[in-house]
Design brief:
heterodimer; A: mainly alpha; B: alpha/beta; GMP Synthetase, Chain A, domain 3; 4-stranded mixed sheet; binds zinc ion
């Protein structure tokens, strides 16, 4: 019975991680052919692919655990926004380039800490996915960190835009470090990452970088949460509409 | 001691892979697959790149074990289709392709031939040991004086670097 429950919880957990990855991957892909210059266009598109690839691995695992005939595409394309459980930070519109890089930086620092822990998971499959993904996150972080320095400590305008991005994103970062009962059960079972323990190291790394980039760490005077419960900002619905339209109009279509 | 260890970077990952290939005992099937290359780097075979991991017969079916390079490598489905078509045409089908994630693919698994082929193709091969800080040698003039231009080159697996001596820009196969 306990084993059955852990299986069901793990399915949900893999799906959540897949949701985070696919939503951010889609946001990054929106830059394709719109980035400020060619190298950055390639970098954003390649990073998007990494996240979409992660989503496929998490969803593929969720589909195996579900064992009800669904495949990774069903998870990505046939669930509505209330069924999506991504953390809200991932779904915010891409904004300007500073916003995209600031969000990416926050998530890259988080992922490096998170995946390093998930590698130790008692669930072998999740551990294997994490071991693979963490290597890519090292590269992502190196790049987004560089951009934070360049933009924060750059021109007056790049500084202003980056500070605005940091201010507007900050209230969405609290949710990254909160456990709901399901994740707490999985932490107890050695499967999930205790994200509450990542908060201090995350804040330390981010705080140091913000200083170095001459940016101000915002006050903790507001927070938005609800992603893991399926309560989203209005933005996710628009994103899914675009992402799912083709698959819903032509189910199973390939080219 | 330290100097000796440095001058001989570990190629354990590659040796383990070679041992697994030899232990499979299916040289004629491996030879068939040796012809297949990565669609994005046609100079290097799938085997040399480390995508192909093992071959085995199980319950009368040929099982091909592969591992993806990058999570989002868009070439993987094409690669699987190539493997399938090649083996099935040679009468080994229908084959089963299994994806192995553990251990995660690393550029340390590249064969010595792959490193040479990359260099010949104008791509600096990854340094062994996944050291992010090490500088690649210019694949054209061999100079060690190089600097990065962009973290991503034409594909996810490459970065764009430039040589300080001959001033050519070149792709660097990132160590991962
Ligand atoms: Zn040169």
């Amino acid at each position: 019975m306990a084993e059955q429950n852990t299986r069901q919880d793990t399915l949900e957990y893999a799906q959540r991680l897949g949701d985070d990855a696919v939503v951010l991957g889609h946001r990054l892909s929106e830059w394709c052919s719109n980035a400020p210059f060619l190298e950055e266009d390639l970098a954003l598109a390649n990073t998007a692919l990494d996240f979409i690839g992660r989503a496929r691995m998490y969803y593929g695992y969720a589909a195996e655990l579900a064992d009800d005939g669904r495949d990774e595409d069903d998870f990505a394309y046939l669930r509505d926004q209330r069924d999506y459980r991504n953390l809200l930070l991932h779904e915010l519109p891409r904004g300007d380039f500073a916003f995209t890089q600031a969000r990416q930086y926050f998530i890259d620092v988080y992922n490096q800490l998170f995946l390093e822990e998930l590698r130790q998971s008692a669930d072998e499959r999740l551990a294997a996915i994490a071991a693979k993904a963490v290597k890519e996150s090292r590269y992502h972080l190196r790049r987004s960190r560089d951009w934070m320095l360049r933009l924060g400590d750059g021109t007056e305008e790049s500084h202003r835009r980056t500070q605005t991005a940091v201010d507007n994103l900050w209230g969405y970062t609290h949710e990254l470090f909160e456990l709901d009962p399901l994740e707490q059960r999985l932490v107890d079972a050695g499967v999930a990452v205790d994200v509450a323990a990542l908060r201090d190291p995350w804040r330390e790394q981010v705080g140091t970088l913000l200083d170095e980039a001459t940016l101000r760490q915002p006050a903790d005077d507001w927070a938005v949460r609800g992603g893991r419960e399926g309560y989203h900002t209005e933005n996710l619905g628009h994103l899914l509409t675009e992402m799912q339209a083709l698959h819903r109009a032509y189910p199973g279509c390939s080219w | 001691m330290v100097a000796a260890a440095r001058s001989r970077p570990t190629d354990t990952a590659w040796r383990l892979r070679l041992a697994r290939r030899e232990a499979s005992g299916l040289p004629e099937i491996w030879a068939l697959l040796d012809r297949l290359t990565d669609p994005e780097i046609p100079a290097v075979s799938l085997w040399d790149l480390g995508i192909l991991r093992d071959l085995a017969w199980r319950d009368g079916r040929l099982i091909v074990t592969i591992t993806p390079t990058y999570c989002g490598c868009p070439a993987m489905s094409e690669i699987e289709a190539d493997i399938r078509a090649t083996l099935e045409q040679a009468g080994y089908g229908p084959v089963e392709i299994e994806t192995e994630l553990k251990p995660a693919w690393s550029t340390d698994e590249l064969s010595p031939e792959a490193r040479e082929a990359l260099r010949g193709y104008g791509i600096a091969p990854p340094c062994i040991g996944s050291a992010l800080t090490e500088k690649p040698q210019c694949p054209r003039c061999g100079s060690g004086q190089t600097h990065p231009l962009a973290e991503f080159g034409s594909t996810a697996c490459k970065a764009l670097w430039q040589c300080d001596e001959c001033h050519e820009a070149f792709d660097y196969f990132k160590p991962i």
